[in-house]
Amino acid sequence: MTGDEAREELLRLRSSIDNMDSMLVHLLAERFKVTQRVGELKAKHGMPPADPDREAKQIARLRSLAEESQLDPEFAEKFITFIVREVVRHHEHIRDEQG
Ligand SMILES: C=C(O[C@@H]1C=C(C(=O)O)C=C[C@H]1O)C(=O)O
After folding, report:
1. What is the mean pLDDT of the chain?
2. Which CATH superfamily is domain 3-98 in?
3. What's the confidence (pLDDT) of residue 99?
4. Mutate which of 42, 88, 92, 93 to test ligand 1's pocket (most atoms within 8 Å of Cβ)?
5. ipTM > 0.90?
6. For the chain, what are the domain ranges?
């Protein structure tokens, strides 16, 4: 492969990365819209913001999916834990605003 061909291939690969990053942002936006509704429901009915049993099941499920997909399960766990931590923070905020 020549230098020019390598640069063209890099641009093609980056274009694919950009598309996937866009999908990730759209998916996350949709997920946060749903978790916002969960937070409002929980606050209204006095349910706690976090549900550790549910989180443990999600982590186990995503670790298994990651293994099947040749993605590092440690990374999958860190990723979902990071997102869930932010969701729980939002839920605490919604609860505190309603109180
Ligand atoms: C969304 C919920 O609230 C919290 C956030 C979760 C998530 O982001 O998936 C999972 C469990 C809860 O700690 C829920 O209980 O389903």
Report:
1. 97
2. Chorismate mutase (1.20.59.10)
3. 59
4. 88
5. yes
6. 3-98
Structure tokens given for 65: 């999916």
Question: Residue with the nearest Cα to atom 1 of ligand 1?
Answer: 35
Residues with CB under 6 A from ligand 1: 35, 38, 50-51, 54-55, 58, 84, 87-88, 91
Mind listing the pLDDT tens digit for each residue in 48-93? 999 999 999 999 999 999 999 999 999 999 999 999 999 999 999 9
Contact partners, residue 67, CB within 8 Å, separation at least 6: 73
Q: Is the pLDDT of residue 44 over 70?
A: yes
